[in-house]
Write a structure and sequence with these properties.
The complex is a heterodimer.
Chain A lengths: L4 E3 L2 E4 L5 E6 L6 E7 L6 E7 L2 E5 L6 E5 L5 E5 L8 E8 L9 E2 L3 E5 L1
Parallel strand pairs in A: 2-11
Antiparallel strand pairs in A: 1-3, 3-8, 4-5, 4-9, 5-6, 7-8, 9-10, 9-11
Chain B lengths: L4 E3 L2 E5 L4 E6 L6 E7 L6 E6 L5 E4 L2 E5 L5 E6 L8 E8 L7 E3 L3 E6 L1
Classes of the chains: A mainly beta, B mainly beta.
Chain lengths: 114, 112
């Protein structure tokens, strides 16, 4: 059974650009959540996708958007990048029969905005 | 954004010592989880707690879900060098989105 994978591992962008991050959920997991982790902080919830629809959103502006595909993989898109968007972006998946909060994380994508 | 209050922020201990860290919240949570994160990696789930008062162990790790549902603690017994890392508590309160709210982390350093 493969775990959660994310790509790319590192990315450097300039302010104002757009970025797409990708996540493949753990086998059989149908729910994907995205988190932003600033340096020295705990992860902050961005949004969650279930059955290809957004299922809850944290305190992030609309320029953060996402998609989930029929195979449960997911994308996070960020438009009009700002310097403060520099962070580790984590994807987590949940098994449909798993405990309510058990989310399994990928290794993350380190985004640097210059 | 919303965060849990996790303490201590950092710990410097000798190998073999026991470790205790805790997490508090002003809100009630239905689930408490403890994760460990090492450099360059995502958080790894250590223990999940689902009932108030629940005490759960995973090897040398023991965690408890507070009776008030507003706190949790994690103990590590007989620490070893591979325990080094950042430990995060996380709470889940929303019934729908299963959003996790994280603490700021406890950085554990072990002197051999």
């Amino acid at each position: 059974e493969t775990g959660v994978t994310q790509s790319p591992t590192h990315l450097i962008k300039t302010r104002g650009q757009q970025v797409t991050l990708r996540c493949s959920s753990q086998s059989g997991h149908n729910t994907v959540s995205w988190y932003q982790q600033a340096l020295g902080q705990g992860p902050q919830f961005i949004f969650q996708y279930y059955r290809e629809e957004e299922n809850g959103r944290g305190n992030f502006p609309p320029r953060f958007s996402g998609l989930q595909f029929p195979n449960y993989s997911s994308e996070l898109n960020v438009n009009a990048l700002e310097l403060d968007d520099s962070a580790l972006y984590l994807c987590a998946s949940t098994h449909p029969r798993g405990g309510g909060g058990e989310q399994f994380f990928g290794p993350g994508t380190r985004l640097t905005v210059l | 954004g919303q965060q849990l209050n996790q303490s201590p922020q950092s710990m410097f201990i000798q190998e073999g010592e026991d470790v205790s860290m805790n997490c508090t919240s002003s809100s009630i949570f239905n689930t408490w989880l403890w994760y460990k994160q090492e450099p360059g990696e995502g958080p790894v789930l250590l223990i999940a707690l689902y009932k108030a008062g629940e005490l759960t162990s995973n090897g040398r790790l023991t965690a408890q879900f507070g009776i008030t549902r507003k706190d949790s603690f994690l103990n590590i017994s007989a620490s070893i060098p591979s325990d080094v890392g950042i430990y995060f508590c996380a709470g889940q309160g929303d019934q729908g989105a299963q959003k996790l709210v994280f603490g700021q982390g406890t950085r554990l350093t072990i002197n051999p």
